[in-house]
From TrEMBL:
Keywords: 4Fe-4S, Electron transport, Iron, Iron-sulfur, Membrane, Metal-binding, Transmembrane, Transmembrane helix, Transport. This is 4Fe-4S binding protein. Residues 155-184, 186-214 form the 4Fe-4S ferredoxin-type domain. One of its GO terms (molecular function) is metal ion binding. The lineage of its organism: Bacteria, Bacillati, Bacillota, Clostridia, Thermosediminibacterales.
Length: 225
């Protein structure tokens, strides 16, 4: 089983953030960076932030992936568009309401953001333990906005139809279970949820995949023998 190599160093940031936020909720304001960055970068790079820099995504890939059943999959329910929007609207409404009633201070706003990170992280870790590690990334509100902003051929994942044998190894290794090989005739994996993580590229036995980005060569690492 291959796993993302780009983001292996970032999961401790999540632990540090939670520790600091528990000590003083003002540190919750740091969450703004992780809310804005995935959406802004998506305009140029698709969901690359989610795949390469998000500390929570790194935690899913490098901690949760080592725990529990190795063959667990993303629940079909989480792949439904309507479910994604229910989660999005629910969490945004909840956050908006909490900001409305919060103490109007840096501390009060930080406390709300910290609470949102804790709620979504607990939910994401539960999903990732029971199902595929990156299950949360199918419904993450910031991931949803990044998915919309990243539509189009931004850092396209190219699939060479002349090389691909349709073995499906790429799709089986993809953390978001994208049917990579189904795009063989199109030539570009057009799924806007692609995290640009490079796992499929490293998994392909015939080098039929190529991410048109300068840093693609770092590839993935093996976590299960
Ligand atoms: S792993 Fe490579 S050869 Fe196999 S289906 Fe995917 S792109 Fe095609
Ligand atoms: S399609 Fe490839 S690059 Fe995109 S998320 Fe799946 S494994 Fe990563």
């Amino acid at each position: 089983m291959k796993i993302n190599n780009y983001n292996r160093r970032y999961w401790p940031v999540l632990i540090i953030f939670i520790t600091l936020g528990a000590y003083n909720s003002t540190f919750g304001l740091l969450a703004v960076a992780c809310m804005i960055a995935p959406v802004l970068t998506a305009f140029f790079k698709g969901r690359m932030w989610c795949g390469r820099f998000c500390p929570r995504g790194s935690f899913f890939d490098h901690v949760l992936a080592r725990l529990g059943d190795r063959n667990r999959r993303i629940p079909q329910l989480l792949k439904k568009t309507w479910m994604r929007w229910i989660i999005f609207i629910s969490l945004m409404t909840y956050m908006g309401f909490n900001l409305y009633i919060a103490e109007k201070s840096i501390y009060g706003i930080g406390a709300v953001l910290f609470k949102m990170v804790i709620i979504t992280t607990v939910f994401g870790v539960l999903l990732g333990y029971l199902f595929a590690p990156r299950s949360w990334c199918k419904i993450c509100p910031m991931g949803t906005l990044a998915m919309i902003a990243g539509r189009g051929a931004k850092v396209p994942l190219v699939i060479k139809s002349s090389e691909c044998r349709l073995c499906g190894i790429c799709a089986r290794n993809c953390p978001l279970e994208i049917p990579v090989h189904s795009f063989r005739d199109v030539g570009i994996v057009e799924d806007p949820d692609c995290l640009k993580c490079g796992v499929c590229i490293s998994s392909c036995p015939v080098t039929a995949l190529k991410l048109e980005d300068k840093n693609e060569s770092r590839g993935a690492v093996e976590i299960y023998s």
